[in-house]
Each structure stands twice: as C-alpha cells, then as structure tokens.
Hints:
By secondary structure, the protein is α+β, with helices and mostly antiparallel strands.
Amino acid sequence: MTGYRIIEGAKLDARNTFGVAARAPMLVEVADTGALGELFGYAMLRDGPLLVLGGGSNLLFAGDPEGAVLALGSQKIALHDDADGADDGVTLVRADAGVEWHALVLWTLGRGLAGLENLALIPGTVGAAPIQNIGAYGVEVRECVHAVEVFERATSRVRRLTAAECAFAYRDSRFKRDPDAFVVTAVEFALRRNATPRLDYAGLADELQAMGIDVRAPAGVRPSQVAEAVCRIRRRKLPDPALVGNAGSFFKNPIVPAAMADALKSDHPALPVFGSGDPASRKLSAAWLIDACGWKGFREGDAGVAASHALVLVNHGAATGAQLLALARRIASSVQERFGVALEPEPRIIGARW
Ligand SMILES: Cc1cc2nc3c(=O)[nH]c(=O)nc-3n(C[C@H](O)[C@H](O)[C@H](O)COP(=O)(O)OP(=O)(O)OC[C@H]3O[C@@H](n4cnc5c(N)ncnc54)[C@H](O)[C@@H]3O)c2cc1C
C-alpha cells in the first residue's frame, strides 16, 4: 500500500478551525492522488458515507462523521499548458487539492500573476476553494477557475470539469449540492499578467490609501499591494482561528425577492442591500440582520458570537459542535421571527441536519 495511510479512530479536534471534538471511524491520509483508484476499490470508501476533509475551516462537527474521512496531502503547484490551446494572454496554473490556499495566492503573486489577490488569507485548501466558490472583497474564485480535476466516485474515473460544468453560484457549486459525487484532486486557474485590480469593494481603496498607495489610477496598483491591503483588513476584522475557534462567516447573505428587499429597506433604512446578479432578487446583509437582533458579542458557556463580527460564531474553548449548532439555530429563528428572512448556514454541518 503506497501513497496513503489509514488511521482508525482518528481525533479530528485539531483538523477543524472551530476546534470542536470529533472522531473519525477511519481517516485516510492520501499523499498521492494516484492511489485513489485503489482506495475506492474498497466498499467502505466506494459505497459508504465519505467526508473529504481539507483544512476543516468550513465545517461544523455537530457529531462524528459516520464513515471514512479522506484528507488529500498532494502539494504541487505548476504553470500549466493550456489544454484548450487558446493563446489569449492567460497563464494557467494547476494546483493540487492539498495545497494551502494562501500559499497558492502568494505563489501566483510572486510570479506577477493577477486574479487571486482579493482572496488572500482565506483559510483552507485549494481543493475546497471550488466547493463553495470562495469569495471575498468583491471577487469569487469562479472568475479564475479554468477547470477542476476530480475523481468521480460512481465511475472511479479522473475527470476534468470545465468551469461551466461546476455550476458555480454565490457560495455554492455542483460540488456543494452533491458532496458525495466527487473528490477534487486539483484546480486549474486562468490568471493574467496585466489585469486592472478590483478595488470597488467597500474599504479596500481606503486601506490602500492608508498604505500610501495612489488608487486614482487602479491600473497602477500591483496585485501584491491589493493582497496586502486585504490581509491587513482581514487581520483586523476576523478572529484568528488559532486564537479562538471559528469558521469565518457562519451564515450566507440571504437572497430574497426584490419586492421583499424593498419593503425591508423601507422599514429599516440602515439595512445594507446588494445586487444578487438577478434583477428579480436582492442580497441582504446577514451580519446586519443578526446584529439588529442583538447577537453580536453574545456568549453562553463557550459558544458565542464574535464581538467584532455578528456573522462569526466562536468557540471560546470547550464548546461542542452541538452547542454551536443550537446557538446558530436560535440566531436564525430570531432573524426569521423579526424580519421574516430565512438564514442558511455557510459551513457544512456534519452529524446533524440544519
Ligand atoms: C477565519 C475564516 C475566514 C474565512 N473567510 C472566508 C472568506 O472570506 N470567503 C469564503 O468563501 N470562505 C471563507 N472562510 C471559509 C473557508 O475558509 C473556505 O470555505 C475554505 O475554502 C474551506 O477550505 P477547507 O480546506 O478548510 O475546507 P473544509 O472545511 O475541510 O471542507 C469544506 C467543504 O469542502 C469539502 N471539501 C474539502 N476538500 C475537498 C476536496 N478536495 N474534494 C471534495 N470536497 C472537498 C468538504 O467535504 C466540505 O464539504 C473562512 C473561514 C475562516 C475560519
């Protein structure tokens, strides 16, 4: 047996950024994705419940995973020939699923490639980035995804899905909707050397200015400077999981019919309302709704809501996943009751239903 190792009864406490206790009946650490064909020959992996685990930064273990847990350790990043043969000023980069996301961002910036700078410092792995179409500071990863290489469980085949086949949407994708179908083994990104940075997201241009960078001509701002500004804002705003357990934003911004958004805005003029990409609907700020219900800084035992950010649930030490889930449900119920808006969790909940 090469390319993987199996640990029975593996503790997952240090493998999730909430830092809650959980145990996997079987953890399979895969160093070489070439071993997946052999591994999925075993019934437990092929047919049983499976959790593919990256950095555990978008998961809540409300209970133990039922079946095997698979962790990919593959670490290669390389410039990639354009398999579609296009010569369109785009540079393709292929990164293995096990690569740390921020390490990839730094790697691309170090080679003068633009595209991922607004997504700097998002925790987790490359393999998880397409799952919820990670997004931050006005950019979603789908804008740079060229293709996703997957191992298909039903057929034991390696396939290359185009970005269109991934059906990306706001914090969503084909992979998130059908988590049992594929193991993402690598992602190909289409990046550019000469791209005008995206500085439209609130606060980004101000941060660059505070760094002494002239933003009047955005084309003159380097991608590495944008990434630095993003890191500065993120370090100020988001609790560091190394210090206090969390999974970033716990709720998605709800998308509601335009008429409902208009009515809410007229009753609550301070409510931030954004376009959703569809003229018939609008995206509301989940953070504002939760804050308005008085949850920011709330704490019960070790489960709480960050004082700095109403969207971030925190584990102050010994909270269980079930306690954090119970708190999340109370928050969502209060928002539903007061505003008639249903909140949906962003992280995947393991061991319980939302
Ligand atoms: C402090 C903090 C800030 C954050 N900020 C942001 C943000 O700005 N924007 C954002 O979008 N997210 C953010 N997140 C959430 C999280 O970092 C991202 O969703 C990240 O992509 C999760 O990566 P991971 O490797 O930790 O995935 P995990 O948490 O390990 O897994 C998440 C999901 O992806 C699946 N998965 C993981 N790897 C694979 C694979 N190789 N193949 C198939 N399925 C896989 C898992 O089964 C699970 O369903 C934040 C989290 C934290 C803690």
